[in-house]
Amino acid sequence: MPKTDPRVDAFIEKKAAFAQPILRHIRAAVHRACPDVEETMKWSMPSFTYKGQILAGMAAFKEHATLGFWRSSEVTGTKEPESGMGQFGRLTSIADLPDDAALEAMVKKAAALIDSGEKKPRPVKHPKAEIAMPDDLADALAGSPAAQATYEGFPPGQKREYLEWVTEAKRPETRAKRVAQAVEWMAEGKRRNWKYENC
Q: Which of 35, 133, 136, 193 has its CA at 20 to 30 Å from residue 94's CA atom?
């Protein structure tokens, strides 16, 4: 018996008339191809999990629906989409989906990837270029031992946040304000984004 979630039923019922058959078709195909799949809601959208891992997700908007496999490029054999449109673009009818055999084969491949135990490859992170300490910020820090001590105690990422904030200012007046604000906050022991830390 399929492991369905009533929240997915409610999601489908609330969507536009064009989207409902697309979502139902995707749902049925996923359950046919992977009987052990379970439904849940992730990021307020229906998702299909298998053995505790995300297999795929679907969504619907005002004028289109989407389907996306979690390990997209490995499942479809194509480059990962750069937009949030899933691997099949903007779906406006069932005809926009691959045929049932192809769709079910992709679901089975996604399940097999989970069964294999191999983790999704992480994207290669290229190191960011180092930002040199600007003279105006260095001078301001030198005039405030408390701010200087805080800055020196920061890990590289927190130092970088202040350096980017100051160096990205476009106008000299804005930059001067940011330098003064940075020194004030650091003198109080605050990180650049301290306002959002306890939200």
A: 35
Are 96 and 58 within 8 A, CB to CB?
no
Residue 120 has pLDDT above 80, yes or no: no
46 φ, ψ (degrees, to nearest 5):
-65, 135
The gap from C-alpha 41 to its chain's centroid, in whole angstroms, comes to 16
6-116, which class in CATH?
alpha beta
Rounded to two decimals, what is the model's pTM? Answer: 0.58
Distance of alpha carbon 164 from the chain centroid: 23
Q: Name residues whose C-beta falls within 8 Å of residue 68's C-beta, 6 or more positions apart in sequence.
A: 56, 57, 58, 81, 86, 87
DSSP code, position 85:
S
Would you say 154 and 171 are in contact if contact means Cβ atoms under 8 Å apart? Answer: no
Closest residue by Cα to residue 103 from 36, 5, 32, 24: 32
pLDDT at residue 4, as a whole number = 85
Bridge partners (DSSP) listed for residue 95 = none
What is the pLDDT confidence band of residue 71, given thresholds at 50, 70 and 90?
Answer: confident
Residue linked to tokens 């018996």: 1
- 91 pairs with which residues across the strands? 65
Residue ranges matching CATH 3.90.1150.200 in the chain: 6-116
Pairing of strands 53-60, 45-50: antiparallel
Residue type, 40: T
